[in-house]
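User: Could you check the structure of this?
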Amino acid sequence: MEEKKRFKVYKIIMLVILVSFITFLITSIGMYQYFSNNGKLGNTLVVSSENNGEIASMLSKYKLLIDKYFLGEVDEEKLKEGAIKGYIEGLGDEYTEYIPKEDMKDYMEEATGNFVGIGIYMVKDNDTNKVMVLSPIKGSPAEKSGILPGDLIISVDGVQYSGDEMSVIANKIKGEEGSKVKLELLRGTETLNLELTRENIKVNPVEGKVLQNNIGYIKFSSFDEGTAEEFKSKYQELEKQGIKSLIIDLRNNGGGIVDQALEIADYVLEKDEVILYEVDKNGNEEVEKAEKDPIINMPIIMLTNNNTASSSEILAGALKDHGKAKIVGTKTYGKGVIQQLMTLQDESGLKITTEEYLTPNKTKINKVGIEPDEEVKLPDDFKNKLNIDEKDDIQLQKAIEMAK
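Assistant: Sure, the predicted structure tokens are below.
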């Protein structure tokens, strides 16, 4: 084992609005977290106050003016937080963000799949500059209230927000179990006003079944703690039922803990085959390889769409590049950068983009996506629906045809 176990999360540009937020996965969103051997978070960043430079000098001048002329009360902590947040936002990177101390606990819990909230994944919609629902969690208040993928969030508790304010929306949506939140949504030209009660959310389990012609079908909506083991158990259950080929449905899967994606890839690839390249700003490469002999030796078809992101793209890219699977559907989202989550001395956090990942063939994913082997687009009437009858799901029907 490595000296430090890396707990990596590539949650799309997505926020998981289960308790509060996760950037994506959306906003995930990706993040890295380093743990020492005893499992404690080991990456605490000590920031020196020396060499403050021009920025600190300029802020000091503004502070003098505020102290001399500002009429209202001055909250030094809020000023400090606002200065840090603005400085980080000045990078112009949608995945890099400052996390206040009081939000770190929620952030860490959500990264590992412990959630309380309404149960939606969301992403910034660049066309409208609104926050868009990626998918609701099965059985969540969001799903039960009828929220669908593609719905745009216009306001939370009567306050309107733009797509650049996903973290703000996330914080407004989170709350205590049993409390209520009001959402205004736009679905096409229809405006929806919903009131939802926050609950403990059970993250999507791995689902599986046997289709016609002894074809196995496995679907899951995120890579959370235990997903790989659940996937393995579900596959072995289907294998005992005599399946001869396998469909892995990654549509609307926004990513999650990358180690889970690597482990699932390891079930399919030959030992020592490359799964992923990680490249930093200096061009240094780190290679992730399969560590075990494969347990899945049958034809595989993967289903993807434009909401297939991050860790899902790692899995899809690895199996495609090695010729272990064919992809059916539409091009994936294109989230191919890595973030590292650092804990500062004051227990606040900095999630910062540090690396880009590439497929085994060194194909770029970020802002590009992965092209399917067989492009199949759902009709407009179906593309934002969560549950489509098998007979109407032309992407699934194409996958079944290829898996026979």
